[in-house]
Structure formats: structure tokens, C-alpha cells
Amino acid sequence: MAFSDLREWIEQLEAAGELRRIKARVDWNEEIGAIVRRVFDLKERGPALLFEHIKDYEQGRCRRLFTASMGNYARIAMMLGLPRETPVREIILTVRSRVQTPVPPVVVPRGPIKENVLRGSDVRILDFPVPKWHPKDGGRYVNTFCGIVTRDPEEGWLNVGLYRGMVVGQRTISNALLAGKHWGIIYHKYRVRGEPMPVAVFYGCDPVLPFAACAPHQIRAGEYEIAGGLRGAPVELVRCETSDLLVPAAAEIVFEGVVPPDPESYREEGPFGEVTGYYAGISTRRPVIEVQCITHRNDPIYQGTLEGGPINEDHRCSSISMSALAWEALERNGIPGVRDVFCPPVGFATSIRVQINKRYQGHARQVAACLWGLNALTNYKLVTVVDDDVDIHDPDAMEWALCYHVDPREDIVVFPGCPGSPLDPSTDPEYQDPVKYGGGLWNRCLIDATRTWRWGPRPEWDGKRFPPLIELRPEVARLVRERWAEYGLPGPGA
Length: 494
Ligand SMILES: Cc1cc2nc3c(=O)[nH]c(=O)nc-3n(C[C@H](O)[C@H](O)[C@H](O)COP(=O)(O)O)c2cc1C
Ligand SMILES: [Mn+2]
Known about the structure:
This protein is an alpha+beta fold. The protein has helices at about 5-15, 30-40, 75-80, 90-100, 180-195, 210-215, 225-230, 315-330, 365-370, 395-405, 410, 435, 475-485, and strands at about 20, 50, 65, 105, 115-120, 140-145, 145-150, 160, 165-170, 170-175, 195-205, 235-240, 245-250, 255-260, 265-270, 270-275, 280, 285, 290-295, 300-305, 340, 350-355, 380-385, 410-420, 440-450. It contains 13 helices and 25 strands. The chain is globular. Flavin mononucleotide (FMN) binds near residues 163, 178, 215, 307 and 314.
């Protein structure tokens, strides 16, 4: 089930008909971004992409760019070693259970990542085919689908996160290094000591690694262990050349460097076409990675991704991870009757649907209160709760429940003043100010689309709380199913 490296993953995708090699010459400047946008818009039908002929990179150190491999649920199932047709609910349950059994990484003496070691003037970020993804991006974003490794200087644990970063010089990347994220917490400790923070960025490996790196798992010393759990085998790591950080032994490319503590070193970053489908922010001075050493495999494959909306590949990752996280939290906190949990693959799990076997009138509010109390500060803005006969993966069924189970005055509850995402353009720009609020500020909303218990059972409703649901008599349903072909109607007849 575990993929030893990116190349094995690409091979498997190709064998399954899930990959397209683009041999036509394409421009890194907006053309690749535009192609990926169209491919994500194909939704489940969009393939993974390997660009093999990129303008200005025909002869260079790195000729190829891989992207979009998480662009449908079939490939996320493949990543986990599940059949491609696995229902989304099963994928979520698999991630949920595997995350609970982390597997520690192993350190190995060498790996293909050390095939080439570059220092000094050989260190040139733009030797790699980094796209300008969107027309109004402030520059070429090199860190989009990678793993950024840092180590807590006090406690010693390694963090791997996925954070955007823009090329601002031949050896310099300016980063959205936010205080609340794990590398932000670690960076703060280095700054207090007045020391540079060692950092390593890896590109191209078993896809469970970036998948784990972009979810807010709370286990400290986490993402390598979580990735090990997801793949059912330890991740093999090697030591960096310039620090004691550890990176995947079979990664395609690694940038090693430091983030200086001094705000004088900060450089302008942004704007960036973001996860919301809108450009985020004006250009802001932010901490930089100064790259000191590059290691890479022979004929390396660079990996990146396009943000934007409505759906992109990391939305799919978040949809699975954040559903799994929420489901686990609801049950751990003893909330009864949770039957299904799903964040549609739009945005950063901004909307979540929960299906319950309703036990009491306040049940949906209890679900929402639990989700809003979690550390997932920038997720779950909109919570919709339905009864256990409404399929949360079926948009029509959801709409039906919204239409007829919701009294807007009673069942829509706004919980104001919560932490939220500073990227959300529907909130007052004032509320998006991370300096003032320590992050964004959200008014969150619960739609309780379960059938209400405000009034009691009634005799004309067969003693139930709601009028009788129109359902077929089982024997008639069976008869019609059996005679369907005889009627000459299309489809299997349910
Ligand atoms: C393509 C992509 C870009 C991202 N960029 C950023 C970013 O610039 N800054 C940030 O704080 N989080 C960013 N995230 C979200 C983080 O990956 C996510 O919050 C993750 O949980 C952070 O890891 P941590 O919990 O170890 O800090 C991005 C996610 C993806 C998929
Ligand atoms: Mn982390």
C-alpha cells in the first residue's frame, strides 16, 4: 500500500489511467496554471498531470512538474491503498482510524535524495520550473505542495507543514509564516533566542506526506508519524546536509536553509490567488527562507499545486482530513448518535455536514458547539446537521432537508465572534485583521436541519412528531423493480 516515492505513485496512477503526460511545450508563466484550473474544473474526471516539456526548462537541471494528483476522491483512495471506487464515507473512516495509530519514522544512512548536493552559487531556486500560477500573483510561488520541516528547539519534535512561499531572490523565499501555525510557534522560540530557525522544504514523495502536512493534526511530533500511520509503514528519513532536520530519503528535491530572526530580513510576499478563489492580501513583509543547500535526485520531478476555486486538489485533501478530524472529535467528546460527517470539497472545510440519530432537541447545537470548540480555528464556519435518513453526500437530499426541516427563525443559530480565517472575503475587512484579532474573526452558523421536537407527537401523524413521509409500500416497490424492464423504461429501476 505504501508508495516508496513519487515515481512509484506516478507509475500506479498511469497504470490506472489516472495520469496524463503533457508533452506539448507549455509556459510556466500562467499557462500551466490555466491548464490546471480547467482540469480541476473537470471535478472527478480531471487527471493527475505530469508536464514534461516546459518553456525555459528543456535542458535544465529539472525538466518536469507534477501536479493535481489529489484532484479526485478515486486517487485519494488509491493513495491509501483502497479501491478507486471506495465511497467517500469509507475513505474518511479509513483516515480517521489510521491517524489514531501513528507509526514513527526510521532514519536511514542514505537515499536517492542525496544523488546531487548543491551549495554556494549552484543554489538557484529557479533552476526548478516554478510556475506563476495566477495572473495577479505577486511572483512565482515555489512552496505550494511540499512539506516544510522545522524542529522545536525546546522540546525537540519535528513539524511538517504545508505553507505557501514566493520566490523573491535566487536563494530567497518569502513565506506566509503565521504565528498560530506550528512553524510559527517554533519560529517564535528561535526569535526569542535571537537565532535563525533551520528549515528544510521537500518536494515530491509518497503523497501521504503532503496530505498529512496540510491538516491541523494536534499530536505534537506529528506529521511524519501520521503519514506513517496513513501508509501503514514507517517513512524513511535522512539527515539534512546543513542541520539536524530530517527529510524523506526518496524525496525528489530538498531545499535546506534558515529563517533569520531579524525583521530587517523580511521581504514582500503576495498577493496570492488563494484557497477561497480570491486573491489574498496585499503584498506584506514576511519572514524569509534563505536557501543554503539543495539536494535532488537525478532528473528530479518538481511538484506544486494551483490554489483557487471552487474545487482544487487540497480542497479534496481537507475535505477528507477535516471530516475525519471532526468525526473523531465528536465521538471522543461523547456526542451520541453521530452517523456520518462530511465537509464538501470546497474551501478549507468551511462548511460541514453532520448526520445524527437525533436523541434530544438540543442535539444539533451540541454538535456545533463541539466543532466550534476545536483547535480547527479556520474551519467549520457553517455547520448543517440532518437526521439519519438524509444522505449528506447527496446535495438534493440536503436541499430537501433545508427546505422542509428548517424554520429559519428557530433553527438557524449564529454564534458570533469566533476565531476564523483572515482569508474569508465575506467577513468585514476589519475582522480579517490578524494583528488586531490574532487571526481572523468569524460569525459562525448552525443550520439545524433535523426534524424539530418543539411540538409533540400528533395522532393524525400516526403518533409521530412529523407528518408521514411518502414511502412506497415495500411489496409494490419490489413488484415495480422486478417488472421495470417489462415497462420499457431506462435504468435499473432503483
Ligand atoms: C497549498 C496550500 C497552501 C497553504 N498555505 C498556507 C500558508 O501560507 N500559511 C498557513 O499558515 N497555512 C497554509 N496552508 C494550510 C496549512 O497547511 C495547514 O493549516 C496545516 O495544518 C499547517 O500545519 P501545522 O498544523 O503543522 O502548522 C496551506 C495549505 C495548502 C494545501
Ligand atoms: Mn503540525
